[in-house]
Amino acid sequence: MELRSIDFGHVLDASGVRGWFGEGHPFHRWVPFGLSFAGSTFVAKTTTLEPRDPNGALARDGLTTRVLRQPCVRVDWRRGIVLNALGLPGPGLEALLATGRWQRRTEPFFLSHAAVAETAAGRLDEVRRFVRILKAALPDFAGPVGLQVNFSCPNVPHGEPAPDPVPGFRAELDEYAALDVPLMVKLSVTLPVAEARAISEHPACDGLCVSNTIPWGEMPDRIDWQGLYGARSPLERFGGGGLSGAPLLPLVAEWVAEARREGIAVPINAGGGILRPADVDVLHRAGASSVFVGTIAMLRGWRLARTIRHATRLFATEAAVGMAAPAVPSRADGI
To answer: What's the pTM value of the predicted model, to 2 decimals?
Structure first.
C-alpha cells in the first residue's frame, strides 16, 4: 500500500500492538512457538498530546501497559474476543519524542494520535499544538513516517456526541495537513459510510483505517452483547469498553464493501477479527487495499506469522498483475 509514494507494505500493525517503539508486550513471550511480526509495518500506540492514564493502566515506568493484568481489560481466548477500556494511557507526545527511539527508525512506519478534549474547540487546539511539536521534530526522523489520525477510540468520551461529527474531523485534518506526511484516518464501522466518504474526500486524507473497537452496546442488531457478557458490561465502572476480536470481521467486510460501492476511492487498511489466514481473504474480497493485525497477537499468536505471510502474498500478487485495488464487490458476492 503506497501513500504519497511511500511503500507501507501490505500488512500493518494495529496501533499499539507492539507498544510505543516496537518493543512488544510481556505476554508476547508466552505465545507457543514464538511470536513474529516479520512482514508487518510498525504502527505505534496512539499517543495523546499530554500525559494520560485515566484507568490506571500504566506501569511504574510510565510507558508499559500491562494489558493482561489490568482490571479494565477482559480477554476470552476461547471465543476470540477482547473487551478493553484502557482509555489511551501514555506519557504524552513530548516524552515519547524525547526518547529518540522513533527518530532512529529507518523503515517506513506510522505514529498515531488522538485528541481527547471534551469539546470540538478543545480538540482542535490539541491538534494544533500536537502538529507544532511533531513538525519541529520531523527533520530528525531517519526514515519515512506517516500519521494515523485516530477519530474513533471508544474509551475517550467527548461529552454529548455531535449530530454530525464530520465538520469537526475535517477541521482537524486541515491542521494535520501542515505536517506534510501521509495521513491515514482511523474510523469505526459504527460511522456511516456516507460520513466516512466526506472525510475521505478531504485533500489531506490519504487513506482510511477501519475498524477501531466497537463501543459497548452499539450495533445491538449485529452483536449479541448479552450472549457475550450478560446484560451489563463487566467494565461498566470504566465506561463500558470497546470490543475487538471475532465478531468484528463480518462487520468490517460489509463496511468496506459498502464503502467501495459508494465511491470511497482512497486506500482502505482493514482489520478487526483477523484470527487466521483465511480471514484476510474476507477483507480482500470486500475491497480492502491492505490489512492490519492486532488482536490475533493476543488470542492466536501462533497463527500470526502465517497470517502475515498469506496476506503479503495475496496483496502482492494483486499488485503484480497491475490491479490498483480489488474489483468493487457487489451484493451478489455475498458481502
So the answer is: 0.92
